[in-house]
């Protein structure tokens, strides 16, 4: 099995545990996910199998879409519902829809974020959550991320109550912490806040409705039909240009040979997917850095 499985990750499992379950159910040795989801987050988790583990880096950076919920009135240590409350303030006024939408608009585009202490970002050789569990807070690197869309999904015109929750949808770049975004939304509205729910609904071109649950995967593995769930490598690399070659050249590609760069790829800076006459992805090639007019293999998928 060489390709990508789209798993509907359940809440309560780590991404690592999901990969281990898929490896066991399908009987594959090589498997890896393309972007960690926190244990309390569900949704799209693409898992690369077999030769497709070689393309994981080209899928990890894909744009992600989430639907989540912000709760105003309480901030937590982890910035989500799993943490201990560290600040609380009742909502003493009605918050207008227009006010929330203005805040969401102000956070659309390129923004700066400081990773939460409970995260896997490394500082000084240790993951931030290791410091956090030891009761330590360290200086964290600020990162720039892009929010492509941030939309309110609640139809109310006024939001009232001691705590206020509302749902949103965000499409964002790699490295965005949506729980940190929820905290920032609260801050701009004047209240402590945390992310109370989150589902990843898309990762690149892959949508939640395409995903399979672990329970269904187990059923399909048992009846021998699981292979039909695997997305081939060439489809997973949909976003890269394709170049079809003949069988003679395909043999050279499998051996990692240098090839002449097609004229119509002169302006392409990134990798090119070389596909067989049967449209099977054979390799990723890039321009040769020192030999103009030639391209060299970056990843070869042949056995």
UniProtKB/TrEMBL annotation:
Its job: Responsible for synthesis of pseudouridine from uracil-55 in the psi GC loop of transfer RNAs.
UniProt xrefs under Pfam families: TruB_C_2, TruB_N
Top class in the EC scheme: isomerase
The protein's name: tRNA pseudouridine synthase B
Molecular function as annotated in GO: RNA binding; tRNA pseudouridine(55) synthase activity
Active site positions, chain numbering: 38
Keyword rRNA-binding set for record: no
A GO BP annotation: mRNA pseudouridine synthesis
EC number: 5.4.99.25
Primary gene name: truB
Keyword terms: Isomerase, tRNA processing
Catalytic activity as recorded in UniProt: uridine(55) in tRNA = pseudouridine(55) in tRNA
Family according to the record: Belongs to the pseudouridine synthase TruB family. Type 1 subfamily.
InterPro entries named among the record's database cross-references: PsdUridine_synth_cat_dom_sf (IPR020103), PsdUridine_synth_N (IPR002501), tRNA_psdUridine_synth_TruB (IPR014780), TruB_C (IPR032819)
Residue stretches making up the tRNA pseudouridylate synthase B C-terminal domain: 179-237
Native species: Geobacillus subterraneus
The Pseudouridine synthase II N-terminal domain, residue ranges: 23-178
């Amino acid at each position: 099995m060489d390709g990508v499985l789209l798993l509907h990750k359940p809440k309560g499992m780590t991404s690592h545990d999901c990969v281990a379950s898929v490896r066991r159910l399908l009987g594959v040795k090589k498997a890896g996910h393309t972007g960690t989801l926190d244990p309390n987050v569900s949704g799209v988790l693409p898992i690369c199998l077999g030769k497709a583990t070689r393309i994981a880096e080209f899928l990890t950076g894909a744009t992600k879409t989430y639907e989540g919920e912000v709760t105003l009135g309480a901030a937590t240590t982890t910035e989500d519902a799993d943490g201990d409350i560290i600040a609380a303030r009742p909502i003493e006024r009605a918050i207008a829809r227009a006010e929330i939408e203005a805040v969401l608009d102000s956070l659309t585009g390129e923004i700066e974020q400081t990773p939460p202490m409970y995260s896997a970002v490394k500082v000084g050789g240790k993951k931030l959550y290791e410091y956090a569990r030891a009761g330590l807070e360290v200086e964290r690197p600020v990162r720039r991320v892009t929010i492509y869309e941030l939309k309110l999904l609640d139809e109310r015109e006024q939001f009232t109550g001691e705590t206020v929750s509302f749902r949103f949808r965000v499409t964002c770049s790699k490295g965005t912490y949506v729980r940190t975004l929820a905290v920032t939304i609260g801050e701009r509205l004047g209240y402590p806040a945390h992310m109370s729910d989150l589902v990843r609904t898309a990762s690149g071109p892959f949508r939640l409705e395409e995903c399979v649950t672990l329970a269904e995967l187990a059923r399909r593995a048992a009846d021998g039909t699981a292979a039909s769930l695997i997305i081939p490598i060439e489809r997973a690399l949909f976003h890269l240009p394709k170049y079809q070659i003949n069988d003679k050249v395909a043999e050279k590609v499998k051996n990692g040979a240098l090839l002449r760069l097609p004229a119509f790829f002169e302006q392409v800076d990134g990798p090119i997917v070389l596909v067989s006459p049967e449209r099977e992805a054979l390799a990723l090639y890039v321009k040769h850095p020192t030999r103009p007019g030639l391209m060299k293999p970056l990843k070869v998928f042949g056995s």
